[in-house]
Every structure is written in structure tokens, then in C-alpha cells.
Amino acid sequence: MKILVCISKTPDTTAKIAFTNNNTKFDTNGVQWIINPYDEWYALVRAIELKEADSSTIIHLVTIGAADAEPIIRKALALGGDEAIRVNSDSTDSFYIASQIAEIAKQGNYDIVFTGKETIDYNGSSIGGMVAEFLDLPYVALATKFELSATKATITREIEGGEEICEVELPIVVSCQKGMAEARIPNMRGIMSARTKPLKVVEPVATESLTSINSFELPPPKAGVKLVPADNVEELVRLLHEEAKAI
Amino acid sequence: MSVLIFIDTAEGHVKKASLEALSYGSKIAEQLGTIAEGIVLGSVSEELSSLGKYGVKKIHHVNADSLNYLDTQVYTNVIAQVAQSGGSDVIVFSNNVDGKAIAPRLSIRLKAGLVSGAVGLPDTTNGFVVRKNVFSGKAFANVAINTPVKIISLNPNAYKIVAGEGKAEVVSFSANIDTPKVKVINTTKASGEVPLTEAEIVVSAGRGLKGPENWKIVEDLAHVLHAGLACSRPVADAHWRPHNEHVGQTGIAIAPNLYIAIGISGAIQHLAGVNRSKVIVVINKDPEAPFFKAADYGIVGDAFEVVPKLTEAVKKLRGVT
Description:
- The complex is a heterodimer.
- Chain A is of the alpha/beta class.
- Helices cover 28% and strands 31% of the residues of chain A.
- In chain A, β3 (19-20) and β4 form a beta hairpin.
- The relative contact order of chain A is 0.18.
- The mean pLDDT of chain A is 95.
- Chain B is an alpha/beta fold.
- Chain B has eight helices and 17 strands.
- Chain B is elongated and about 60 Å long.
- Chain B starts with a strand and ends with a helix.
- The mean pLDDT of chain B is 95.
- Chains A and B meet through α1, α3, α4, β9 and β10 of A and α2, α3, β7, β8 and β9 of B.
- β15 (226-227) of chain A pairs parallel with β17 of chain B, so a sheet runs across the interface.
């Protein structure tokens, strides 16, 4: 079994969001970078669990990023990937990124491609579906459970107000969310071995971008909370009804 | 030329998110001086022509048993055929569970730039620029789509449903339909509940409730408000409430008109999932709870006293006894 896990570098959840260059660039000053939580906690950890169940499983990681993405990919290797590929590009267009991942996936002939359900910075939820289309493979989005029996996957996915369980023959592309696995932290042995695991750097294949970000904006600041005394909830209901028109 | 809107159904009924997509797509058609058309896959139990009141002139219906469940490859192939036969320039999805599964595939198939998570109408004064949420609701990006065909998936609750008059012409489209590779074996739905991502009002509670046995007051409030029920991460992790009620960074992201947070301190990870709510009410006995900074209205007080009173006050407003 060969699994490819897509890893993205994102600002830490608590990072201050600000922009520079006339609001066209994300201000990375002082930002802590992490593995996109959905890629790490759900996609990667589920892949590691599958390897623990079948030790012949090979896990490759792929990231599209500049050299500054390497600490993130080393951490992913410390958690349990076998080898990593970094495609040397800092593009943010999902078509471009998915093209690069699809290229790596074609060369590696993987049985499963896992992605997180979205990144916490661009919130595109697009890469999994795009890679699946490039590879002409089935795609299940927003998976909450993934079980394997030989070459058949049984996958639970979120639907509005419930869930749907489906069966698919491998190979497949799956985007992962909460429920797939529980978060882990790398252990010392993992951290030590990650230093010597292969991290291959490849140049991107020539392709285009279909979208471009013109500018960023911050939402207007909240006016501030209007406090209502606890013994006058009728006033809160009145405000919600008459002022906010929310009920 | 046309704007094509994907109409998503569940158990034969058109989802609310699709009514938003229809209203949004019809407005774009008006903006571009073209017509809006819809596409429905699989069997439906509603009169499709009545969707004309949301502004669509024509609905392409592709009906086959194999389309009653989502296989993204099969769906993409059918939608692409309809889009290409009608020369659609703009294709609109809701950025809901199915839109997230299909739109990216279609983007590759048609080589059409995709903006997912749109929150406003495109600006067409100079190119085609769509505003979307980024950084988990903490900012917006204005994204230019640079391809002749454009795909937009609209965030749920980001555009108001506009219903007017009119009937749509329903045409049956005969498409080449592949055999699904994804075989759905079971679907479970929590019956009678308002799906969280579609709820106009969400009532949510956290550790301040002290234990699962105390949820009745929250459920009562949700009931009188016809609200969806949600919870914070520690509550889901402690199994006080099911995981599908967990809203926040790692749970479900929601954007209701009204979000009422009871006994939730408002950690940044929680805010990331709810900060797109239009109005936020926080009820917490700790005046220092960080959530108050993100709230529009607040009550500093004991949930066990405040919430039942709030339920009664809402009943009074709504004339329920």
C-alpha cells in the first residue's frame, strides 16, 4: 500500500492576521508556522494508523512550498512519514498547486491520496477534488472515517445533518476532517529519525494559474459588546428583535 | 452565454443553500446581461418549475437512479456536458458539502478558475473579481478569475434568498452518465434537527454547563428559536455531546444570522469557526471571558438562571405559551 499525504504550511491558529504591500501580501512578520491542522491531525495521522496496521505501507508526503516549508515537512516526517517531496514553488493558486501534486502522484502510483479538508489560511477545500480530477480517480470529500479491507475502502463522509457511508475500490483521493484520527505529537525517536529521512526537492512542472489575489481586507472591527443586565433578559430579546432583527 | 447554477437536493428536496445559490446566480446573470439556468441531478419530489421565482429561466433536469447519490466523477461529467452544451460562462455552486466535493473537479475539467467560499457578488468593472473568506473568517481576499469560464461556490448564509415571481422551463437533458465507482451503502440523518450549516440561528453551549445532564435548558432555548444546536470542542471531546455538534476551527464552521454562546469562554480556535456569524450573543458568568470581545450582545450571569428566562422571553415574543 502506498499513500501520498498532502501537507500545507499555514500560519498558527493564533497568528495575528495583517497585510503589507498595499494589502496585497500576508504579513509573515512574527508568524509561527504549523502543519495545516487538517493535514496533520486527520490526513497524516490516519495514514500512520494504516501503516501501523500494515507495516508494508509506505507513506510519502508532498508539499508545495519554498525552502522555508522544510521545518514543517520535517515535523510531518517526525510524526511518521517515510519520505517527503517538496515542490519548489510558493504559488497560492489551487489549480497550480493541484497540478504539481497530481504530477507527483502520477509518478508515485499511489493507492490513496489524503488531503486535509481545507487549509486554515485560504480555506479553499479544493486541492483534493482537483487532484482527483487530474488523476481521473474517485474522490470522497470531508471524510470522517476511513477503513480498509484489502483494496476496498469504506468511507464515512459528512452530509448536512448526518453522514453517508460508501464503498470504493482503490485507488482513491480523500479529503479528511475531524473523526478520521486523533491528534498526536511526535516522539523523540520520530524526531531523531526524521533528520535522516529523504526529503527530495523537485522543480515545479510548467503550468498556469487560473486565479490571482488582487487584495486582502480585514473585516471592520466590531462595535463592541452591548451588555444587558442578567435580571433583564427581556431587554436582550427586545434588542435582538428590534435592533439586530435577528429573531 | 448563461449562468448555470447547480441545485443540490437531499432526499428529493432542494437544499436551502441552493436557494441562496439560485438567488445569487440569478443576480450575476442580471449583472452580466445574460440568463440564469439551473441544473438538477437525480430524482426530486418538488415542482422544479417553481424555482423560477428565484430568477432562473430554465432548469436542466438529468434524472437517473445512479444520480441519486453523489459520485463526484459522475456528477462532474454530467454538469460539464450541460455547461458546455449551453455555453455557460459562470457556474455557481453552494460551498456546502456537495459543492466542496464537485466544484474543484469541474474546475479542472473545464479549466475554469474557481473561487470557493465567495461572500459577495463579483465585481466586473475590471475583470471578474470575487470576494471570499480567508484565514478562517479573519479576513477577506478579492480574487480575480482569469479564465473565460468561471466557477464560484457561495458560502452558505452569505447571500439572502430573493424570491419573486416566475416559473422556470424544465427541460430533461439526456447526458452520458458513467457507472458510479462510489457505492453508497448507508445514509443516516438526525431527524427533526436543523442542520447546523443551514441554521439561521445556532444555540451553542460549552463547559460552563458543567455536565451533559444540564443540556435541557439549551435544547429548550434552541427549540423555541428553531435553532441548530452546537457545542464547543471540550464538550464534544468529553462526549457530553456528539462530535457533529462541535463548531470551531477543527469542527464545523458556521455563519448563522444569530449565534448564542452559553458558557463558552471563546478560545481563538472556537472563534475561528463562528466569527462569520452576523450577530453574536454571549452568556457567561465570567466578565473576563474573551468571547465578550467578539460579541455584539452579552449577559454576564449564570447560565442556569439566564437561559430559562431567555427561553420564556422568546416564547412571549413569539406568542408561544
